[in-house]
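ligand=calcium ion
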Amino acid sequence: MSESAKIQVKSIVLAAGKGTRMKSDKPKVLHEIFNKPLVSWVLSACEEAGSFENIVVVGHKGEDVQDFVNKKHPESSCVFQREQLGTGHAVSMAKNELKDFKGNVLILCGDTPLITSESLEKFVDFHNENNAAITVMTSVLNNPKGYGRIVRSASGNVSEIVEEKDCNDTQKAINEINAGMYCIDWQKAKGFFDNLKNDNAQNEYYLTDIIKWGNENGLKVSGYILENSDETLGINSRIQLAEAFKIMNDRHLNKLMDEGVTIVSPENTQISPETEIGADTVIFPNTFINGKNKIGKNCKIGPFSHLRGDCTIEDYVKIGNFVELKKSYVKSHTNISHLSYVGDTKVGSGVNIGAGTITANYNSITKEKKQTIINDGASIGSNTVLVAPVELGEKAFIAAGSVITKDVGANSLGLTRSPQKEIKNYVK
Ligand code: UD1
Ligand code: CA
């Protein structure tokens, strides 16, 4: 970040709303894209932009959101807004927490998972370079319906935001909209939250009134136009959730291809943005990669592979069709080519895992997960079950069809199948 990074930043993330249109028992911001709740994408973007001690305003099923935040974003905290009286009222719930805070506060919504840390950094830099007290993020849309409109003065300054329901016809025709993200110098602008008013069409305490208030109180107010309006997409329905998933996926696939990864059929491939992939790796169609993973160079993944997260794959590895991989480390030049499940496993280098190999990592009675270790050069015959915890030594050889419950030493053969019988002339 630029020198303006020296000014501390904290964020307030609004997440108290019910999200009625999701038709869900779950609070909206806990709905997931690539295994990660919407609010978590927003908090991660804040953290990557240098804002760590963030405040999430929760309300509807707030305890659930709070549990999640405590677990996954321990530097952040939650404040409750028991009644949802408007976005301005929501922010005012964080007043106590920020009382003495000297720095910038980003105000974001918990349902806009596509916002990137790069855009947030540029936004904060713009705010600082302008010496602004209040900066609102805006976006120009072909169809501005439903959004607050940005009213600018003749000289181009942002003079106010008018909600659609409060707009006159001229204002309705404005296509620069309020993206619902703000950067404010807390000490200069916090006074707004002591003077909230709800004299508008929805009788809500609007955060958007901060613009007019700032102008009336002699503060420097500015507007930052975000080029890529996709980033401000708010999720209100399952259809928008699927749209956001697609945008997030496409964005990441394009980035990977730019970095030298071949994606044979992007329209049939899903790769979580938290997955890094090295150059010259080829991803074949119908591959689904979820969660955080690191894949090396010159690998071949798919078709029809499923990575469920926390996987590290070194270079020149082959993960083939109908292979599921979870929480595993796979060293270079190893093949897991067909029909296998590998979970909670360390796989060495130059290992060959035959078709239909299963690591039985889970005991459903004790609910425990156990590790499998497969050392360098081991070779596992088809249709083998490795019952964890178990370790195969270097170059261990497992005969096809075995159920391995005990460790097998280096260079040894492990075999548990019963000997083949032949009954001569049986058919006659
Ligand atoms: C808001 C803006 C609008 C902007 C749009 C961008 C206001 C008055 N309007 O409208 O100008 O174009 O966002 O998406 O701010 N929330 C709370 N507590 C409340 C009310 C809302 O936490 O009491 C949260 C919601 O959960 C949501 C966010 O604030 O995450 C935005 O609220 P919402 O009601 O969706 O605002 P919009 O009507 O979309
Ligand atoms: Ca609303």
